[in-house]
Structures are given as C-alpha cells and as structure tokens.
Amino acid sequence: MALSAGTRSNGGSANVAQRLQKELMDIMTHPTPGISAFPVDENMTSWAATIDGPADTPYAGLTFKLSMEFATTYPYTAPTVLFKTPIYHPNVDFSGRICLDILKEKWAATMSVSSVLLSLQSLLGEPNNSSPLNGQAAELWDKDMVEYKRLVIARHKNPEELET
To answer: In the β-sheet with 63-69, what is the strand arrangement from edge to edge?
Structure first.
C-alpha cells in the first residue's frame, strides 16, 4: 500500500514521507511494549499513537491516545503531539497540550516517533513539577498521591469511549 504525504508540491513533503515511512517500518519490525503509532488513513503526516501508563505510577493499567502531526520541516522540527485521552498530569493542560522540552527547544533531528512516545511514557511517572501546565496536579503530586490518583482515574476515559 502506497502512503502519500498529502500534497507533493515540493521535495520537502516527499522527504518527510520517506522519513516517516522508515520510522513506521522500524515501529512495525521492532515493536516496543506499551507504545504504538501509525498513520491516520493514508496521510503520512498525521498519526495516531497510544502509550500505556507505566507500572508503579498513578497511570498503571491506563491507555492514552495521542495525535501526532508532522510539518514539512520534520525531522528538523518536532511534531505537534497532543493527548486525545483526557489526562490529569502536571505537564499536560486540559486541551491535551504537553510541556516537554524535547517537543520544543531540546528537539533534535535524530529523535523519532518512538523516542517521543517513550519520553512521554516516562514523563507520566516523572513529571517536571518545576514547569507545570497544571499547577494543581503538580502540587498534589508532591503532597497527596491518593487524591492525585483519584483525579487521574476520574479524568481518564478508555480509548473506545473517545470520539474519533
């Protein structure tokens, strides 16, 4: 099945499609437990991803859907990644936007879809409370883990409950 990069008006989108095709093959041939990602329909620049909450964290046993959008400048610019599953976390706002340095100023062209998802999975268990998007979650993480976990469960929806 041939996948397109949308418009091919310039060589940039073809290069993006080639890079993402390679990353998709890597994901398919070397799957990482707890993460998955794949293009939406035949558009290589729009992906759906999932990460499983890590064991021994308030997110254990939960699955989160994310969207990943790739600009024509990928891999030189980070993808736009959003949580589609509602999540209660110090570094994620209620719109699903993520505060993570590798998605901003610390991005490097050597990073990949898999490395981004692994970093996000790690962030679930190790939030950066010094740079919160959700101040209440950051405060509760440090002071009241029982209440924090209650709010994580209250906000979470299973992937099949989400509108697509």
So the answer is: 35-40, 43-52, 63-69, 80-83
